[in-house]
Amino acid sequence: MLDFAHWLAQTRISLAIQTRLWVIPTVQSVHIVAIGIVMSSVFMMDLRVFGWAATDQTMRQMTRRFAPWLWGALCVLFVTGALMVVGEPVRELLSLSFWLKMSLIVVGAATAAGFQMTLGRNDGDWEHSSANRRTTKCLAMVTFLVWCGIVILGRLIAYDHVWGRWSLAPIT
Amino acid sequence: MNITGFLQSIESSGIAAWLRGSLYAFPLIESLHVIGLTMVFGTAAIIDLRLLGLASARRPFAALASETIRWTWGAFALTATTGALMFSTNALAYYQNLQFRFKMSLLVLAGINVLIFTLTAGRSVDRWNADEAAPLAGKLAAVFSLLIWIGVIFLGRWVGFTKVIDLTPDIDILINLDRF
Predict the structure, then answer these.
(1) Which residues on chain B are in Cβ contact (under 8 Å) with A155?
(2) Which of A24, A33, A40 sits opposite B150 (nearest CB)?
(3) Residue A171 resides in a domain
(4) Helix, strand, coil: what percent of chain A each, to 5?
(5) What ipTM describes this predicted complex?
(6) Residue A56, SS3?
(7) CB within 8 A of B139, min separation 6: which ones?
(8) Residues of chain B whose pLDDT is less than 70?
(9) CB-CB: which of B26, B43, B158 is closest to A25?
(10) Cβ-defined contact of A39 to B42 (cutoff 8 Å)
């Protein structure tokens, strides 16, 4: 991985990012704006599941309102994230937080897609039995916590030393 | 006590010293700051887009705004608290940092924007509550809100990349807050 990261750091596009100091902060800021959209979209759909907001809306209406924003923002996150990896390969690829974050993103995206598909198909069904309601609420809570975890791990990339001897960061 | 003395006393407080010394505290507080600020921006944007008639346009404004804004305030409280804690670790340097000052000025503008909205379009909500979009004053407030919060995010990120130079002669304290 270190070899690959060093190779990537020598590519023309990586060097272009590295030599323009404004690129990384700008890309990171766009990344954070998109995180805001993802977090709030997930949060609002969860509030509806808990019955704490938008009770005049069905889950299908909520999904139609927020899912396009969620997936659109995730695309932005993927592109800006990829730019950060290309711009700073060693920092990103040799950090345990980065790989933990990638794993959690798979979980987060899969849960969001699963949620969308089941609730979209049988709109309202989950509200009719208390067992279904409870499961849905649990899943909604877990989903939001997973996204919080993703944000925390993203920030910890800059502080990989918190993992102690598990840290992948090369000793400088 | 002058401002420098005041800031230095913040820096030398027990909690600031503890935050500087702990391996985990600052990164975790910074992470909570990011969670808080993304929620402030996202929930505020939901209200702004409704004012502009670009999203949730069929739902009455007042209901949507009241059930959303309480979370904006909650998230703002988390962000401000964690922000104050981060500030305490290096108060003087942040105070002298240009990007930090711009960011704080934008936050003041955000407050003024809310105040103006409350005094103008906010007063006549009953009249346009069910309309697809707010009157001009409401739309302007929404555009300003979106621009201000995106600006706050960009400036906040920029603070982490600036070298904060202490005024003490010959000693440049270079804190690269993002990647040491």
Answers:
(1) 27, 30-31, 34
(2) A33
(3) no
(4) 85, 0, 15
(5) 0.92
(6) coil
(7) B51, B52, B133
(8) 163-180
(9) B158
(10) yes
